[in-house]
Amino acid sequence: MKITSTTFGQLHDGSSAELFTLSNDTVTIKITNYGAIITAIDMPNKNGSIENVVCGFDKLETYISEEYLGSYPYFGAIIGRFGNRIAKGHLEIEGKTYEMAINNGPNHLHGGLVGFDRKLFTAEIIENENEVGVKLSYLSPNGEENYPGNLQVTCIYTLNEACELGIQYYAETDKTTVVNLTNHTYFNLSAQKENILNHELELSATKMTEMIEQIPTGKIKPVVGTAYDFSSPRKLGAAGLEMGYDDNFVLDNQDGELELAGCLSEAKSGRKVEVYTTQPGMQVYTGYWNPELLIDGQKKFGSYSGIALETQHYPDSVNQPKFPTTLLKPGEKYDQKTVYKFITE
Known about the structure:
Layout: E1 2-10, E2 16-23, E3 28-32, E4 37-44, E5 50-52, H1 60-63, H2 66-69, E6 78-79, E7 85-86, E8 90-93, E9 96-99, E10 108-109, E11 122-127, E12 131-140, E13 151-160, E14 164-173, E15 177-178, E16 182-183, E17 186-187, E18 200-203, E19 207-212, E20 215-222, E21 234-235, E22 246-250, E23 259-266, E24 271-277, E25 281-285, E26 292-295, E27 298-301, E28 307-312, E29 327-328, E30 334-344
């Protein structure tokens, strides 16, 4: 296993972003400290052909371009302070009301206008006998995007010989706030040869949050026998949903231990990704709104070009007292982990 770093490019304010390459004998993963973005994951198919299986770019300038940000799909980024939606941007903490930016219809999405996905993290390389990785840190100041508290955030990416990409999240605050961190990598195990509708997904989730216009009603409903039943492997396009999936599944594991949450597979390539997490939920988004972009003279991506498997606490949990809490108080430590395991059969 090894890790290397190079300069990735320059941001508009003149600061420089780095690109870290984590590799073992099978998998190579590239991560930049801008937005803690996973830019590429190279893995073999069943014939030994090594290809990138996530949506991303090889230039920083594309991530900060007007074309990309104009229809922003958050490719590969860490999302915070609060992943997913807060209804009408309305947040109450300890009796005080906070009104957040409205940036997704009538709601607040993914931390606001400038979330963690557009921040430059401080980076520290990790190398030991069992893994290589990068520790990314960011101090979100009190009032940033109108969230209370100085929030110290740490995201640690690691790769081991078992082809497991670990994502460990930590956060601490000096004032009660809300935290819901996730990663927004989009997988396409065909390496963009096809869209993801023939991928098969299996989830350890017999329930989901009932939603109206992408905001939970507060009810938890069963998925058995519906288009949302992934208790056995099911093709993502099998149900013929008009705009695919953008839904929060309630994982069977609710005890906070690291357990298997799901498996994504693609038959032609023989590639699989197993997802393990301590989180209680997973947003499955099949990328209907992903933009088609002109990259180096070629059209790339577009609808269903990738699937995001966002391990998380539930959307709008700040306004749903029966949902697992996302409150973080001084003296407490936010501590969550997700692992993506890459397999070729």
